[in-house]
Amino acid sequence: MQEGFARRHVRSLTAVLSVASIALVVAAVRGVVPSGALPHAPQWFVDAIPPLNAAISAAAIGTIVVGVRKIRAGNVDAHRRAMLATTVLFFAFLGLYLYRLVVHGTTEFAGPETVYTFVYLPILVVHMGLAMVSIPLVYYALLLAGTHSVAELPQTRHPTVGRFAAGAWLVSFALGIVVYLMLYVLF
Questions:
Q1: Where are the transmembrane segments (predicted)?
Q2: Distance CA 68, CA 111 (A)
Q3: In whole angstroms, what is the distance from residue 77 CA to residue 157 CA?
Q4: Would you list the domain boundaries of the chain?
Q5: What angle do CA 79, 140, 21 make, to 5 degrees?
Q6: Predicted TM-score of the model (pTM)
């Protein structure tokens, strides 16, 4: 049987997609992407992105939990739908986040310095670290799922990597909501 390119190169594709994704985020954070390169939406839309992304994160937490429960129950089709929904939610989140970052910049923490140093910053660092760790794990799990039959997946690293990806993704989304609350609601 002739194997497809993606199936033969899951690790390489994971690496390329991961590096490209992380480079895009770093470029946006560092201001490499000029704000003039993107169309400017009305201010109300830019202002709506943080609460919208918090809602997207909450929905993604729900779809991850559903996906984990469905695969534990042996319902592969429902698991696949839930994890694809999570992926779509993630890309929607990321697109909105990067857009706002490029056209608006970062939001400064307005709370007390001690809260910033001992609460906000550690939460932000863990959130960002898990988000970055999630990227290659998610790509790898998705590429395995997309290039192997359901019968083959248990013999791949998909179940193991998928568990780690789901856990890291789940905590990252949850901490992202905490970051939102600290930036836009509490302070």
A1: 12-32, 52-69, 81-99, 119-143, 164-186
A2: 36
A3: 19
A4: 5-186
A5: 110
A6: 0.92
Q: Are 64 and 81 in contact (CB under 8 A)?
A: no
**pLDDT at residue number 1:** 39
Q: What is the DSSP code string of 89-154?
A: HHHHHHHHHHHHHHHH-PPPP-S-HHHIIIIIHHHHHHHHHHHHHHHHHHHHHHHHHHHS-TTTGG
What is the model's pLDDT at position 140? 98
Residue type, 155: Q
Q: What share of residues in the chain are helix, strand, coil (percent, to 5)?
A: 80, 0, 20
Terminal alpha carbon distance of the chain: 60
pLDDT at position 2 is 47
Question: Residue 33: its pLDDT value, please?
Answer: 87
Extract the residue ranges of the chain whose pLDDT is less than 70.
1-2
Question: How many residues comprise the chain?
Answer: 187
Q: Say which amino acid occupies 149.
A: S
User: How many C-beta neighbours within 10 Å does residue 142 have?
Assistant: 20
Q: For 5-186, CATH number?
A: 1.20.120
Give the integer Cα–Cα distance in Å for 161 and 154.
Answer: 11
List b or e across 33-45, with b for residues whose CB sees 16 or more CB atoms inside 10 angstroms: beeeeeeeeeeee
